[in-house]
Amino acid sequence: MQEDRGLKGRPRRAKRPVPIPSEPVAILRGHIARYGTAPDGRLFRTERGGVLQASAYSRTWEAARCLALTPSQVESESARRPYDLRHAGVSLRLDAGIPATQVAEWAGHSVEVLLKIYAKCVDGHDHVWHGMLDRALGDDAG
After folding, report:
1. Fewer CB within 10 A of the terminal residue: the chain, N end or C end?
2. Residues with Cβ < 8 Å from 135, sequence gap 6 or more?
């Protein structure tokens, strides 16, 4: 059964723009050019235009993982569920140095929730932060 609801804690018709890199944009545009969308705008649908059931997503996702990942990655927890890609996307943005306030807005979280869930994603980068601080203070020798 497909959920028909708005974003959590927001008006039903609220939208949240989330930028994505140009390569996935090109892939999505190619998919839409080739297959179109359902009348309600959905990208993925049954052959007759109906709503895909959760089990169809699960089977397709499992097959895609086997094609796209190495055998050891398939055995790992990497992208076990499609929802895991959300975590990966948020983690990537934080790891790239995008400010937590911006990432939180795109993810639909408060900064507090974002950092509680994803704080470990920015661990191990002390050398990066030290370099940024040195450059901000005008010490290019770092």
Report:
1. N
2. 142
Cβ neighbours, 10 Å, residue 132: 13
Per-block mean pLDDT, blocks of 10 residues, the chain (142 long): 58 76 92 91 85 86 90 84 84 86 90 84 72 85 53
- In 59-134, beta strands by DSSP E: none
pTM, 2 dp: 0.64
CA distance 43 to 28: 9
**Most distant CA atoms of the chain, gap in Å:** 63
Cα-Cα end-to-end distance for the chain: 56
Classify 81 as helix, strand or coil: coil
Residues 13 and 5: their CA atoms lie apart, in Å, by: 9
DSSP code string of 83-118: THHHHHHHHHHHHTT--HHHHHHHHT--HHHHHHHH
Q: Can you give the residue ranges of every domain in the chain?
A: 87-142
Structural contact between residues 104 and 110, judged by C-beta atoms closer than 8 angstroms: yes
